[in-house]
Amino acid sequence: MASSAPAATTPRIAIIGAGPGGLVLARLLHLASIPFSLYEAEPSRTSREQGGSLDLHEESGQLALHAAGLHSEWKKIARSEGEDMRVADKHGKIFMEEVDSQGGGRPEVDRIQLRALLLDSLPEGMIQWGHKVRSISPSSDGDGKHEVHIETASGPRTETFDLVVGADGAWSKVRPLLSDTKPHYSTISCLDTRIRSVDTLHPVISKLVGQGAYFAFSDRRGLVAQRNGDGSIRTYIMLQKPETWLKEVGVDWSDAHAAKNFMLDQEYKDWNEELKSLIAHANPDIVPRSLYMLPTDFSWTSKPGLTLLGDAAHLMTPFAGEGVNMAMVDALDLSKAIAKAGSEGENTTLFDAIKAFEESMLERSHEKMEETWRNLELFFRPDAPKEFVQAFEEMMAAHGPPPEVPKAYS
Ligand SMILES: Cc1cc2nc3c(=O)[nH]c(=O)nc-3n(C[C@H](O)[C@H](O)[C@H](O)COP(=O)(O)OP(=O)(O)OC[C@H]3O[C@@H](n4cnc5c(N)ncnc54)[C@H](O)[C@@H]3O)c2cc1C
């Protein structure tokens, strides 16, 4: 369902995907009274567990929330104490520590809460749940129009649009129309684990992780533990392994007992006991993931009627905490480009506006993709985390604290 009937000259816009990027774009277009259709493959807002905690940066994620009129609501759920962090090695030797660092400008929010904030900011019925886009093809009408082929519970449907926005994540259906490049394996395999009620059931782990995050890296392995707002601790058990390792190593990852024993006896055997307790006490719902990425210089030649944002445009691993932030600020910039092309007295065509958006988005994202890749390499060196900490200190000395929010938003 479109948000309202488009006027004769209004472009028909489709947003594919209701992740953070698609939702921010929807909210901003809705505020600007620009109609669109938003298709989401998942059947409902509650159909998937939403993952861990995210820090939103002032210059990107928070900027988008300001423009969306949601910053003050977000502040009520943001946790400044979540900024605390420690970086250690497998012996628990601390290499870097930032505690009681409230006010660093990057508070944490649980992904589920951020998603609820964005979903609740849109009128009921605006998201078409259970609408999985199967494919997209150029329309015979020309002019950059595209047909979007959608699978729904009541059968297949095809709709034609002037602009199709791929906000559909890592395995975007829109990206192949712009580029032949596919995401490649990042070298990192991961088990996503949770320990619930940690304060009451596991006070030692609670103290170890504190209010924020605890990163331990050594020997091409890592444990990244982060406190979530619901009293649980999420630990990503991360290993640098070949692409097929998770499938071929001979462990049934759905058997939590077997998965934990394998990690404790084989991969993390010589790690200190406190760190090993993050694995030993993981609850049974363990999710294996292989992390993929796009090349750090990924780009495409702009084509009328199509664009990408977020992971669809610049999939990266989580090692700089930029993915969500980039998706949200992309959505902010794209909403401005669409509004600019549609405003009275403005000579910019929609294609020109999108092209300019893509140029600046790609420049920004290349920088973050390179930083992310650099961090991955430093975290997974045999002598980690020594060189990561050195590189971080050098970067802070060279660049100082993060940039301020532009005055218009403060
Ligand atoms: C383990 C892990 C930890 C992470 N930690 C962080 C972190 O700490 N900080 C950070 O900033 N980032 C983190 N990220 C990255 C972050 O999750 C992504 O960058 C972010 O979610 C991208 O948002 P998006 O809207 O572009 O895409 P997504 O969040 O992937 O949303 C895409 C949406 O499109 C829908 N969709 C997909 N295909 C179709 C289709 N064919 N038809 C209709 N709908 C479709 C999907 O169901 C989904 O809802 C992490 C990622 C992983 C894997």
From TrEMBL:
Xref: SUPFAM superfamilies: FAD/NAD(P)-binding domain
Keyword Cell wall biogenesis/degradation annotated: no
GO process annotations (BP): response to antibiotic
Keyword Transcription regulation annotated: no
Pfam families, per database record: FAD_binding_3
Residue ranges occupied by any FAD-binding domain in the UniProt entry: 13-346
One GO molecular-function entry: FAD binding
Keywords: FAD, Flavoprotein, Monooxygenase, Oxidoreductase
Alphabetical list of PANTHER family matching this protein: FAD DEPENDENT OXIDOREDUCTASE DOMAIN-CONTAINING PROTEIN, MONOOXYGENASE ASQM-RELATED
Full protein name: FAD-binding domain-containing protein
Species this chain originates from: Imshaugia aleurites
